[in-house]
Amino acid sequence: MRFTSEQRLDDGVLEREFTLGETPGTLWTPPGSTPAPLILMSHNNGLPKADARLVARARCTAARGYAVATIDAAGCGDRPRSAADEQARADLRRAMRAGEPVDGIFESFIGPLVENAAPEWPATLDAVLALPEVGGPVGYSGWTALGIRLAAIDPRITAACFFAGGYVPLAQREEARRVTVPLLLLLQWDDEGNPRQRALDLFDAFGSEQKTLHANLGGHTGTPWFELEDSCRFYDRHLR
User: Where do the H-state alpha helices sit in the chain?
Assistant: First the structure.
């Protein structure tokens, strides 16, 4: 891991950009000398780590005493996408404009996006946990499809907050039964891109004995800000 820039924010949080091989990332750490619990934070469907909503969530979470790490994994942010991925995205835009079925198109590029991104997150976790200012345990926040894969394969993740918006491939819907960590699922009731019943079925499929569903009125990007406070209280219960 090589740090490429850093800035101290007004609330004392240290924000640092880094690279790990070809993977660019950002790490936020709270003030103080005690090793902080870590939260891996990702955005839906390959949006960049610099997206304003993710950055705001990360900074507020770090101010609550957590280290927060995010990366642009393969196919995410500004990293190159394959010709097949670009074609699938173009097909999706066309199908949505025409009101045609889109499940098959979603499957054709979200599935590979998860498969390609998933290996880079455990490597990032290895590097961040090696820093003296970061300790365990580890939580996950964000993109549901990716989070299911990581929670199913990496035992270091001990709690997860998933955003139900966005397509979850068939493989991850099956893997949901292997997710047994404490879970908070955030659902936008009127999400135009995520059928409500599918999200409810996914919640039912998770194998966790402790799982909570928060549903709010509004579309895909309308998650209320108070859910950030609730998610931090969720992490307080399970990571401290």
Answer: 52-63, 83-98, 103-117, 120-129, 144-153, 170-175, 196-205, 226-239
Give the helix ranges, DSSP H, for 167-225.
Answer: 170-175, 196-205
pLDDT tens-place string over residues 51-106: 888 899 999 999 999 999 999 988 777 787 778 777 877 887 788 788 787 788 88
CA distance 140 to 71: 13
Q: Which two tokens stand for residue 224?
A: 């209320």
Residues 6+ apart with CB under 8 A from 97: none
CATH topology of domain 2-79+114-239: Rossmann fold (3.40.50)
Q: List beta partners, residue 23.
A: 20
Q: Which residues of the chain have pLDDT under 50?
A: none
pTM: 0.92
Task: Give the bridge partners for 41, in sequence order.
Answer: 141
